[in-house]
């Protein structure tokens, strides 16, 4: 990374926009940034590191405290860097989060927060925004984070020996990113994970095999002895499982042979039991058939009565039509007589009701008009009561608003008084501040007088502008509240007066209705108080309906009388035909006919029962004769002895089957366990072989080796020694050959050490010592040599990281004249490497040696770059 231009605005000592053009001072490769103390030399480095990473170059400076105290309210605070990297141009803009004044509408001022912002413009013109996103992109481009950039490219004030004395772990993190050696650490991690995985898999196989052994249950004493220890002899256990399987199979065959013999005995016994049970069932069925035959013969008399009943029922069915004709006409005539009586009774009732309703019907219109007037008065009373109630509520609301207005009026007066008093004290204080400029014998800056008999004082308890603004704001808010309350009170008054007017109108309407109600007679009013509107309406409608209904009922009665005469003639003819049918059917009268009547279903059921009886009687007699012929010469046999024998054989067979099953399960369990152990043992041996290879590689890569050095540290040690070799080329030159840096390989007590610890050889004493024992100037030389050596190795080994610029903040003040010459010589030697070196210093010797300079001019209105 090589900076082209840096622009800082409203930043630290820089009041307005200041631009540093590095192209003008970097032609010779090395340049000096100089100026008075506090002018802002280090601010240049702060701007570069902040533009790149959003952080400052020094640890004591914070990015949220950089806004210039000299800057105007409308001057922004930002840093903008244009840089060249790998031949490509990048532009970065950042501003930190800071507080700035904002203009208020009432003329006062308050503070507002400017949010942090970052914008990166890439070589292709695309733009990326966001502080975190821009920082991550810069780290990706430079392949250095903020901490690594400081230690490699920027040696900030007070941090000369940071990289020199950094912990081995910190150096490892820096070099891992620079030389991309994380691959070796990941490789070692993969080996370690793989070794752990394989070890777990081997142990898992052992656990699973042990579980198989535990799940195999046997009473074999040899097996119990083999499994009594913690480690199981799998080979011996597998041999024993094979022997147990053979023993179980042999016992299983013996049990099967005994079961086969028992099955043959059971077959013969079952045949004898089946024959005995068949004979028993035949004899039992013969006994049951004979009993049923005797029972059927006992039912012969009953069947004769049923046949006679069926015969009389069939004769009655033949004359059923004549009976139904007489019965039907009688029912119709009875119904007509009942309807005729009902009509006569209804006519008498309705005539009486007509007489009752006639009086109401005649005066129905006046009653309905009175009811309408009464309803209107009731509704008016409700509206009047609601209006009076609302008027009370509005008057109460008006009173509350008036009280609120008076209280707010007092508070507003108090706020105005406080504001007036504070403004008065502030004006007197301003005059007092101006009076401090008055000097005896010199003109007054206000009136010009040379005499000053009574110089004004500033007084005590003087408010500042912020307090005045708060008082003004409190008064404005109180006055606005007073105006709002005035409007609310006026609206409440208008609403209350409007409701009072409505109540007066309702009273006038009530008087008019009362006058109209006086025109109705007392008799009508009395009747209306007893009867309601619905009753009057119902009575009027009833009267009209009754008049029409009476006419219909009288016509219906005449029709019923004619129908009755016709049915009486039909009944006489039907009765004559019925008497002839009774005589023909052989019935003495209607009572004999009714006794003989059977429904069609009953006749059918009775006929079927007689036929079924005759069929069952014949079948029982035939079956009984056939069975007696079949059982001739046979006797019943008792099955109890056979059943006892069968139960005995079943118990014996059950015992043998249990034994065979136990031996079969034992053989299967032994064979299954043997197969599981054999398969898992084979897979475990493969895993153990792989684990042995990976474990050896893991030991070598993770530091379990003769040198106690992990793989990545071994690689980094090579790079580190190259860096130290390059650094020593310059350190020997800057120290006159006295010092030489080297890597600490092993502690004195032989314990393992990190491979990136540094020690220094002092050729004056011929002994190694810690770099922390170097003086300030010696530490600066060593740090400078190490940074330059690292820059050489990085560019030689890693094409992705180019250290094209090195910035040094002070440190040269700790060098004597000879050391200063040596350091400058070493830095001048880097010019040939096309590298930019910027030095911040106010050491006069450096100003004489380095021609290209950026001067920071310090003024009481802010610093300037020239």
Automatic annotation (TrEMBL):
SUPFAM superfamilies given in the database record: P-loop containing nucleoside triphosphate hydrolases
Keyword tags: Coiled coil
Protein name listed in UniProt: Nuclease SbcCD subunit C
InterPro entries assigned: P-loop_NTPase
Coiled coil: 234-286, 326-397, 489-517, 550-584
Family, similarity comment: Belongs to the SMC family. SbcC subfamily.
Protein's UniProt keywords contain Coiled coil: yes
Subunit and interaction comment: Heterodimer of SbcC and SbcD.
């Amino acid at each position: 990374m090589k900076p082209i231009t840096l622009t800082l605005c409203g930043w630290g000592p820089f009041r307005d926009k200041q631009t540093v053009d590095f192209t003008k001072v970097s032609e010779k490769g090395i340049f000096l940034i100089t100026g008075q103390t506090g002018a802002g030399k280090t601010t240049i480095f702060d701007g570069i590191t902040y533009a790149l990473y959003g952080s400052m170059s020094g640890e004591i400076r914070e990015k949220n405290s950089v806004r210039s105290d000299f800057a105007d309210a409308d001057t922004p605070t930002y840093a903008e860097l244009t840089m060249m990297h790998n031949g490509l141009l990048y532009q970065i803009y950042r501003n930190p989060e800071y507080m700035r004044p904002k203009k208020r509408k009432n003329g006062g001022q308050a503070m507002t927060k400017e949010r942090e912002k970052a914008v990166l413009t890439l070589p292709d013109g695309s733009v990326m925004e966001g502080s975190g996103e821009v920082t991550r992109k810069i780290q990706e481009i430079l392949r250095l984070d903020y901490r690594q950039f400081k230690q490699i490219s920027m040696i900030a004030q007070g941090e000369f020996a940071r990289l020199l004395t950094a912990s081995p772990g910190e150096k490892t993190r820096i070099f891992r990113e620079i030389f991309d050696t994380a691959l070796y650490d990941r490789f070692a991690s993969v080996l370690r994970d793989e070794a752990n995985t394989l070890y777990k898999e081997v142990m898992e196989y052992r656990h699973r095999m042990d579980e198989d052994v535990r799940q195999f249950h046997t009473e074999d004493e040899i097996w119990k002895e083999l499994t009594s220890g913690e480690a199981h002899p799998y080979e011996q256990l597998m041999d024993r499982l094979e022997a147990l399987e053979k023993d179980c199979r042999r016992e299983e065959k013996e049990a099967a042979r005994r079961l086969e013999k028992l099955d043959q005995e059971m077959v013969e016994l079952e045949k004898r039991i089946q024959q005995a049970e068949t004979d028993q069932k035949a004899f039992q069925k013969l006994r049951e058939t004979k009993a049923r035959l005797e029972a059927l013969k006992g039912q012969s008399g009953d069947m004769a009565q049923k046949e006679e009943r069926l015969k009389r029922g069939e004769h009655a069915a033949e004359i059923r039509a004549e009976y139904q004709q007489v019965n039907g006409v009688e029912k119709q005539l009875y119904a007509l007589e009942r309807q005729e009586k009902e009509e006569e009774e209804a006519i008498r009732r309705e005539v009486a009701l007509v007489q009752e309703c006639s009086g109401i019907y005649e005066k129905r219109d006046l009653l309905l008009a009175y009811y309408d007037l009464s309803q209107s008065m009731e509704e008016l009373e409700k509206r009047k009561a609601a209006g009076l109630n609302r008027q009370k509520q509005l008057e109460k609301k008006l009173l509350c608003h008036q009280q609120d207005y008076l209280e707010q009026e007092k508070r507003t007066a108090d706020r105005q008084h406080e504001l007036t008093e504070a403004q008065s004290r502030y004006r007197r204080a301003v005059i007092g501040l101006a009076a401090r400029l008055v000097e005896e014998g010199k003109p007054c800056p206000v009136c010009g007088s040379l005499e000053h008999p009574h110089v004004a004082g500033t007084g005590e308890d003087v408010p500042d502008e912020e307090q005045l603004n708060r008082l003004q704001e409190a008064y404005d808010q109180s006055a606005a509240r007073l105006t709002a309350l005035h409007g609310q009170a006026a609206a409440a008054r208008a609403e209350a007066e409007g409701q009072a007017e409505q109540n007066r109108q309702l009273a006038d309407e009530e008087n008019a209705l009362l006058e109209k109600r006086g025109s109705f007679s007392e008799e009508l009013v009395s009747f209306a108080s007893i009867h309601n509107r619905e009753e009057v309406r119902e009575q009027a409608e009833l009267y009209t309906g009754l008049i029409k209904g009476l006419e219909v009922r009288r016509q219906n009665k005449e029709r019923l009388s004619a129908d009755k005469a016709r049915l009486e003639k039909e009944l006489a003819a039907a009765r004559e035909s019925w008497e002839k049918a009774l005589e023909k059917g052989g019935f003495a009268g209607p009572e004999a006919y009714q006794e003989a009547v059977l429904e069609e279903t009953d006749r059918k059921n009775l006929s079927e029962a007689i036929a079924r009886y005759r069929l069952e009687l014949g079948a029982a007699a035939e079956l009984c004769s056939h069975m007696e012929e079949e059982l001739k010469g046979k006797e019943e046999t008792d099955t109890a002895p056979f059943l006892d024998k069968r139960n005995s054989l079943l118990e014996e067979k059950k015992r043998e089957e249990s034994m065979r099953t136990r031996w079969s399960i034992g053989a299967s369990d032994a064979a299954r366990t043997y197969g599981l152990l054999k398969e898992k043992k084979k897979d475990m041996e493969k895993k153990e072989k792989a684990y042995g290879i990976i474990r050896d590689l893991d030991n070598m890569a993770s530091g379990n080796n003769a040198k106690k050095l992990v793989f990545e540290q071994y690689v980094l040690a090579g790079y580190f020694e190259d860096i130290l070799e390059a650094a020593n080329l310059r350190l020997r030159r800057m120290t006159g050959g006295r010092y030489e840096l080297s890597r600490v390989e092993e502690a004195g007590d032989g314990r393992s050490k990190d491979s990136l610890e540094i020690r220094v050889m002092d050729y004056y004493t011929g002994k190694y010592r810690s770099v922390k024992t170097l003086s300030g100037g010696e530490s600066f030389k060593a740090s400078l040599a190490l940074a330059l050596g690292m820059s050489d190795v990085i560019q030689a080994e890693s094409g992705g990281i180019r250290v094209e610029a090195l910035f040094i903040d002070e440190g040269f003040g700790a060098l004597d004249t000879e050391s200063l010459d040596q350091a400058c010589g070493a830095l001048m030697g880097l010019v040939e490497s096309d590298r930019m070196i910027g030095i911040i210093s106010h050491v006069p010797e450096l100003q004489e040696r380095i021609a290209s300079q950026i001067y920071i001019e310090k003024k009481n209105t802010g610093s300037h770059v020239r």
